[in-house]
Amino acid sequence: MLELAVAITVFVLGALAYAQTMISLERAQVRTREAGRATQAARAVLERIHAEAFPEAFRRYNGEVADDPGGAGTAPGNHFAVDGLSARPGDVDGLAGEVIFPTPPNQPGRLSEAVVDPDLGMPRDLNGDGGVNAAENYATDYRILPVRVRIAWTGVAGPGLVEINTMLGNW
């Protein structure tokens, strides 16, 4: 009887361990699918920005609606939805995706060379005049456009984040 009880206990423990492994694998697959969806969406937004007429790219995808090339409120702006992903709780606009340029705090329409952001290689000469000038606004006078696309979501597997930092050039 004792041998049978030990055998059943070992079997039950083995079955529980197997079930836990299967649950963990499923969660990992879901997280991988969500991260892939986010990466694909970030790359698509970067491609759309790159496809814009270069002098207008910043104005179409920044957070300032007043400077949109086709008139106020006509551009996509800096926030976007990602199919299948929900924004994190507390996200003000309820959209998981965001385009970020080197702009001073609370000045989304001002492209600045002096913003400190090592991940974007900033500060940096954006217009090719040989210097970094904090006083100028390079929103229409840039040759290099640093851009970060960030997607932050909460999914089935918990919170996730994908961020792509790049430089677009007009040479």
List the helices and strands and how they pair.
Blueprint: H1 2-51, H2 54-61, E1 79-80, E2 86-87, E3 97-100, E4 144-155, E5 158-169
Antiparallel strand pairs: 1-3, 2-4, 3-4, 4-5
Rg estimate, integer Å: 23 Å
Main sheet, how many strands, which sense, barrel?
A: 5 strands, antiparallel
- Tell me, rounded to a whole number, the average pLDDT: 91
Overall body shape: elongated
Order of helices and strands: HHEEEEE
Low-confidence stretches: none
Number of strands: 5
Structural class: alpha+beta
What is the first-to-last residue Cα distance?
83 Å
Strand residue content: 15-25%
Helix percentage: 25-40%
**How large is the count of helical segments?**
2
- Give the number of domains: 1
How would you sum up this structure, described in words?
- Helices cover 34% and strands 19% of the residues.
- Strands 1, 2, 3, 4 and 5 form a 5-stranded antiparallel β-sheet that branches.
- Strand 4 (144-155) and strand 5 (158-169) form a beta hairpin.
- With 171 residues, the protein is of the alpha+beta class.
- The chain has one domain (2-169).
- It contains 2 helices and 5 strands; from the N terminus they run H-H-E-E-E-E-E.
